[in-house]
Q: What sequence folds into this?
């Protein structure tokens, strides 16, 4: 299907549970028009990239594109090119605000890969970085629950153990393209899950502290274990299957749609 985001500002999508965190943290329901760059930049005060530059959301038309490529501009100047009244870039800005350490690291890794391979050639590592950046979902849970979902045990993972979600299984949206497409959710909407094995008691109690903890944890994981050397640590996750993220997923029959909740492919011998 061809996806088209809403052409104008709206908050009609906020009833979908996957937007609950954004709404709670940024009070999106109070906006009757697009958040301004000034508003975004007020929230970005103190956020720096790995080149020690304060990040600033700058209108696309005000960017000196002769200075370099998108990631180079962010790294060299701290300016994040931002299209006005654009869902993709707005959600990208929110991810910078929620995951400043991880986003700064991913930007630096892009620069590392550009320096190694040039702007045009896409290395396996750079592809993995982009996949997480656009489509990533971070799932914090124990090893048993992670293995179940990695093996596409959708009915068991999503429905039979439904009560575990937001108690011992915590999903956090990272990919801003996921958010954009979820403004008009459709069967087929799938993210790429990165699983962090942790006991739920390790997470702080407040929502903002949870994101700060996850940002620090994710940064260390990527930096120290090189989990984005390729995309092997990113697993398909049907986003509408996450309990509370979609109103129609309360019945078991919803998860029996194998066109969406696909069984895991067996590796050919």
A:
């Amino acid at each position: 299907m061809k996806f088209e985001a809403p052409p104008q500002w709206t908050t009609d999508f906020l009833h979908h549970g996957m937007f609950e965190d954004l709404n709670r943290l940024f009070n999106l329901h109070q906006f009757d028009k697009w958040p301004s760059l000034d508003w975004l930049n007020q929230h970005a005060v103190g956020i720096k990239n790995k080149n020690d530059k304060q990040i600033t959301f700058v209108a696309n038309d005000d960017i000196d594109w002769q200075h370099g490529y998108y990631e180079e501009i962010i790294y060299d100047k701290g300016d994040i090119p931002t299209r006005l009244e654009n869902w993709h870039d707005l959600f990208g800005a929110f991810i910078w605000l929620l995951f400043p350490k991880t986003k700064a690291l991913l930007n630096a890794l892009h620069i590392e890969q550009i320096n190694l391979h040039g702007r045009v050639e896409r290395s396996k590592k750079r592809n993995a970085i982009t996949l997480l950046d656009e489509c990533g979902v971070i799932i914090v849970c124990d090893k048993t629950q992670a293995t179940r979902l990695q093996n596409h045990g959708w009915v068991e993972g999503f429905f039979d153990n439904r009560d575990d979600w937001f108690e011992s299984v915590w999903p956090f949206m990272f990919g801003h393209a996921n958010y954009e497409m979820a403004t008009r959710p459709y069967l087929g909407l799938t993210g790429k899950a990165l699983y962090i094995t942790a006991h739920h008691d390790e997470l702080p109690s407040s929502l903002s502290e949870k994101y700060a903890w996850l940002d620090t944890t994710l940064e260390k994981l990527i930096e120290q274990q090189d989990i984005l050397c390729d995309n092997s640590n990113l697993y398909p996750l049907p986003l509408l299957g996450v309990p509370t993220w979609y109103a129609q997923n309360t019945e078991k029959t919803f998860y029996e749609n194998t066109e969406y909740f696909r069984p895991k492919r067996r590796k050919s011998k």
